[in-house]
Input
Amino acid sequence: TQLLEQSPQFLSIQEGENLTVYCNSSSVFSSLQWYRQEPGEGPVLLVTVVTGGEVKKLKRLTFQFGDARKDSSLHITAAQPGDTGLYLCAGAFTNAGKSTFGDGTTLTVKP
Amino acid sequence: NAGVTQTPKFQVLKTGQSMTLQCAQDMNHNSMYWYRQDPGMGLRLIYYSASEGTTDKGEVPNGYNVSRLNKREFSLRLESAAPSQTSVYFCASSEVGYVTTFGSGTRLTVV
Output
């Protein structure tokens, strides 16, 4: 059973375009994390959101946690080739550390 | 600033062989994790250790054993490797209720 659904699975865009990727679940999370993974490397934590409705910005990346803490979105403004990678979301139910990961969105930004 | 160090980076095993994947972190984190990543299936938790001296099963523990040797080190052992265990294995650590730092992975092929 896949608890976290990410969409789209693949996304290919031109440099300068905007995009949004989604992370959805029927479960309520105590926190949700977004990671970026480049080929041959481990995921790197970008942000964690804890409060329903919370919005966090990291340069051109905007992360939002749904009001009910069941879903999240990542919006990238004016994408650059350096944004290329696999974007993973993960939800944590408690402080026990058993995070559940989505399957990821593979983003390709063409120059 | 080594973070999480995994060895080896690559390994090829024959079916039935055994091996141990090593992981060490230098951030004084209490929690450590082992994940496997397969194409299209995201990251799945094999085992985790909330603190030194404790271990617990994750989503896919069958065929694996772990040892939390001390606060720094958390090893993963395959007693009798099977082709289904071909994957990329990531060790991770954290001090909070979600993963903050991943290693760069061990790419294992079982033939």
Q: What stands out?
A: The first strand of chain B starts at residue 4 and ends at 7. The radius of gyration of chain B is 13 Å.
